[in-house]
Design a protein that fits this description.
With about 500 residues, this protein is mostly helical. The protein contains 20 helices and 4 strands. It has helices at about 1-25, 30-55, 65-85, 120-145, 150-165, 165-170, 185-195, 200-215, 220-235, 240-255, 255-265, 280-290, 320-335, 340, 345-355, 365, 385-405, 410-440, 455-460, 460-505, and strands spanning about 90-95, 100, 295-305, 305-310. The strands form 2 sheets. The chain has a two-stranded antiparallel sheet. A two-stranded antiparallel sheet has the order 3-4. Strand 1 and strand 2 form a beta hairpin. Helix 7 (about 185-195) crosses helix 17 (about 385-405), helix 8 runs parallel beside helix 10 (about 240-255) and helix 15 packs antiparallel against helix 17 (about 385-405). It is globular, with a radius of gyration of 25 Å.
């Protein structure tokens, strides 16, 4: 009897240990580990593709919501220009008081827009959604590899990053420029590398491409959030100024095509300020509650007869997700000694941005005559950036705990159950927003004429086309000069390295 029991115990113990390594240890070079990781990556990626395709109604967004219709109209302008091989300087309707299409910073100019020449706008919405999500998925994989995360850690980061209330609610109601959100894993990773000691010029140049990519998608809002975060971070650590200034400076020059025309056309344009979180109770609800009726509005008027909609505060991650962030992102970081020497500097910008996201505090800053600041009228949106930084830190500290764990069934069962439950909660949240967005049907032509013509935009229209041409030329020359210069420096360093090796051999 003991012999039979021992025969059963050996394979069970082997399976338990193998499963533990797969779930809680970084991927190894063994065939079993690689196969298990690739299977999980494939299934999670496809699940995300389905989620975003479904939430965007498989690209069939025309007349579905005000912002969906606006971006549908933008793509119509782009498609017409591609088919006719012309430059879309103007559009047949106003946006923010102007028909100057290439001055609108929210338009999508990512290289994949060329596909519009060969496919329907509905098909392109679906394609671009998958492209943006895929970029975000690569960012999650990059973070996993950078910090040697296990599958369990990766899955938690993937779920909360991809399906939290902020991104799900904004895309559900048609804030299409939010696809730039999927570039943020690269920004978070860049910030962590900076804090870990990489203050090189090369690191600064890498930041430029990250910010440039956001603006290609039309993501002016996340671009500004990142600038605010970097400014606050650099104020408290002088050695960060060099890479930050290099990165931001290059990004602004690379993005001249986007920034200069917008600055001239929208000079002096002011959005009505919408305020941030009105109270801590609203913040708690925004992080932990799913409202069955997303018609919920906050009792904060920002215009005549208009209240702040719930999607502007929604950051749902569930009580389970919030507990994860509080335990690993705060408690474990504070408790472990090395937290005070590695990432503590991040606490200041995270805290300040969280403070800015409340009430009218940021309003005093938004009305200052500072570049790009007036773009942000809804500071509650800011919270997503410190939330993502905290998510990455939580995952780093959780992996440290996993590295000390011993194999056991209890922890494995709880981990799998916790991930599954968090996924179910996030999908329930998305389904509520899908239902809400599906109820809105716009009449054809509803969007046209909503915005009155801007007298300022009309007065500078004579300069619009040459300004666009010059700004695009500046961007092209800057990018070409950077690429050529980088290649030259790379070859020069390689030549010097070879000479040094030859000299040492002699």
């Amino acid at each position: 009897m003991n012999e039979i029991k021992e025969k059963w115990q050996l394979p069970v113990e082997s399976f338990k240990n193998g499963l533990f390594k797969l779930l809680f240890r970084p991927a190894s070079e063994t065939l079993a580990s690689k196969t298990g990781n690739y299977l999980v990556f494939g299934m999670t990626y496809l699940a995300g593709v389905f989620h975003w395709a479904w939430l965007s109604n498989y690209g069939k967004v025309q007349y579905r919501y005000i912002d969906w219709q606006m971006f549908y109209d933008f793509y119509q302008v782009t498609q017409k220009a591609l088919i006719e091989n012309s430059i879309p300087y103007f559009m047949p309707h106003n946006y923010k008081g102007t028909d100057q299409f290439l001055s609108v910073p929210a338009t999508d100019l990512f290289p994949t827009i060329y596909f519009l020449k060969f496919m329907s706008i509905e098909g392109f919405f679906l394609t671009q959604m998958i492209v943006a999500y895929s970029l975000g998925f690569l960012g999650c994989l990059w973070m996993k590899r950078k910090y040697q995360w296990s599958l369990t850690t990766f899955m938690i980061f993937f779920l909360i990053f991809n399906f939290n209330g902020h991104i799900a609610s904004h895309l559900a109601v048609g804030h299409w420029s939010w696809i730039a959100y999927f570039v943020l894993p690269f920004f978070v990773g860049w910030v962590l590398s900076l804090v870990e000691g990489d203050v090189s010029s090369f690191h600064g140049a890498w930041l430029a491409w990250i910010l440039f990519g956001m603006l290609l998608f039309g993501g002016l809002h996340p671009f500004v959030w990142c600038l605010i975060f970097l400014l606050l971070l650099s104020l408290f650590q002088k050695r960060y100024w060099k890479p930050v200034l290099i990165g931001v400076g290059l990004a602004l020059v690379f993005s001249s095509y986007r920034i200069i025309p917008a600055a001239i056309t929208f000079w002096g344009y002011k959005n009505p300020f919408m305020y941030g979180f009105p109270s801590f109770s609203v913040l708690w609800s925004a992080l932990t509650s799913i409202y069955q009726s997303q018609g919920v509005v906050l009792d904060m008027k920002y215009a005549e007869g208009v209240s702040m909609p719930w999607w502007e505060v929604d950051h749902y991650i569930s009580v389970l997700g919030l507990g994860f962030l509080l335990y690993f992102g705060f408690w474990r970081r504070w408790k472990e000694a090395d937290a005070l020497t590695d990432y503590h500097i991040l606490n200041i910008p995270m805290l300040l941005i969280a403070v800015f996201s409340f009430g009218a505090i940021f309003g005093f800053i938004a009305h200052l005559p500072l570049p790009l600041i007036s773009v942000e009228r809804t500071p509650s949106r800011f919270l997503i950036l410190p939330l993502l930084v905290l998510l990455a830190l939580s995952c780093i500290w959780m992996q440290k705990m996993f590295d000390r764990l011993q194999p056991g069934w209890v922890v494995q069962i709880f981990a799998i159950a916790g991930i599954a439950y968090e996924g179910i909660l996030l999908m329930e949240h998305s389904s509520v927003w899908y239902e809400h967005a599906s109820k809105i049907k716009l009449a054809p032509g509803f969007l046209q004429g909503i915005e009155p013509t801007s007298a300022w935009a009309k007065s500078v229209e004579v300069y619009y086309v040459p300004v666009v041409q010059i700004s695009y030329l500046i961007s092209l020359i800057a990018i070409a000069a950077f690429v050529i210069g980088s290649q030259y420096l790379k070859r020069k360093r390689l030549a010097l390295s070879n000479e040094a090796e030859t000299a040492s051999d002699l």
